[in-house]
Specification:
By secondary structure, the protein is of the alpha+beta class. The chain has 10 helices and 8 strands. It folds into 2 domains: 103 residues, 2-Layer Sandwich (Alpha-Beta Plaits), CATH 3.30.70.1450; 178 residues, no CATH class.
Length: 293
């Protein structure tokens, strides 16, 4: 009706277009003027809603309640009916004052529980990944290969991550726990590389031709990364921070790219290219071994 005041949530351009279409902008914030409604920010910790789309929760019919934003880590997403909720998400919603307790119970809003890891799903995923790595794939001509203990868990993680949940089992980790495991894994990776390769690296450098081998490896790595970044950024117009994640072939480089870009695009590029490159390397190494032996 004429003179109604409404609150619009959306991107800047969308809000600007809607403002021009509907009328004029009100100078004061009217979001909290109606005491009958409350604006809440709740953590998603209830496993019953994890892996569910916002539409499937039927919030409007139940309470009513309306989710406007979903914060995942440091990224704020505009909520839509297709948005899938994950453990650790923080949803911003509007509901009636009398429904606040019920809505809070629905989402859980327990920060402490988000620090826990479901050992059953985590352990089951690891076991499935290791078993997948032991499977031998046979091809015509006597060619066979295994994904190994790196490719197997990677492939299973991709499948389970896409499924998100199977019945009561949730395959995804809370954001905080995921970040902690990533940091811990990075420390173990760097420590393992140093312990296993330190002596071999020095021995190779001191041997005849070691310096030339080191220089060639350095040039190969530099030129590959340089031309990938140059072609992707200048010709294909891919965002530079996204490209840095694509060329980051291990987590330490990814962490540096994230620090330099100050956004999460390197992580997206890394997760897109890493499974493909890892499985491809596993296949090509075994294929070359068979062909050249």
């Amino acid at each position: 009706k004429r003179n109604d005041k409404i609150v619009i949530v959306g991107s800047y351009d969308a809000v600007h277009k809607m403002t021009q279409y509907l009328g004029e902008e009100v100078e004061r914030d009217i979001s909290y003027e109606n005491s009958s409604y409350a604006s809440l920010k709740l953590f998603v910790s209830n496993t019953a809603v994890v892996g569910q789309s916002i539409a499937s929760l039927s919030l409007i019919e139940q309470f009513p309640a309306l989710i406007t934003r979903v914060q995942r880590g440091d990224v704020e997403l505009l909520a839509s009916s297709e948005t899938i909720l994950e453990l650790g998400d923080r949803v911003q919603l509007i509901t009636r004052q009398k429904d606040v307790d019920e809505v809070t119970d629905l989402f859980g809003n327990s920060y402490e529980s988000l620090s826990h890891i479901n050992l059953m799903s985590f352990g089951s995923g690891m076991v499935l990944g290791l078993l997948m790595g032991l499977v031998t794939f046979q091809f015509p001509g006597g060619l066979s290969f295994k994904l190994g203990f790196a490719g197997g868990p990677m492939l299973v993680a991709l499948i389970l991550g896409q499924l998100r949940r199977t019945g009561p089992i949730i395959w995804t980790l809370p954001y905080s726990a995921n970040l902690t495991l990533r940091q811990f894994g990075l420390i173990l990776l760097l420590a393992g590389i140093g312990i296993r390769s330190g002596h071999t690296f020095l021995t190779t450098l001191q041997a005849g031709g070691g310096s030339a081998l080191f220089v060639c490896s350095l040039l190969l790595s530099f030129l590959t990364a340089f031309f990938t970044l140059w072609i992707g950024y200048k010709i294909l117009r891919i965002p530079f921070s996204f490209l840095t994640g694509m060329v980051a072939n291990q987590p330490a480089i990814l962490e540096y790219a994230i620090d330099q870009s100050e956004n999460k695009l390197p992580t997206i590029g890394f997760t897109m290219i890493l499974p493909i490159s890892m499985i491809a390397k596993i296949l090509f190494v075994q294929l070359l071994f068979v062909l050249l032996s």
